[in-house]
Amino acid sequence: MLGIWRDFLVAVVTALRKPDERALAEERRRAVERLADETVRENRRTVDPPE
Questions:
Q1: What predicted TM-score, i.e. pTM, was given to this entire model?
Q2: How many helices (H) and strands (E) does the chain have?
Q3: 3-state secondary structure string, 3-44?
């Protein structure tokens, strides 16, 4: 009986952690995209200065 409760609690904790991990992964992905966009804009500015 104790094993069933332990498995249940492990499943609950695991289920509660996954959204946080997904949210962190999504935020990291957005940060990398912003950095890439910023880097591209910066490189275009230095390579092709406005006339």
A1: 0.53
A2: 1, 0
A3: HHHHHHHHHHHHHHHHHHHHHHHHHHHHHHHHHHHHHHHHHH
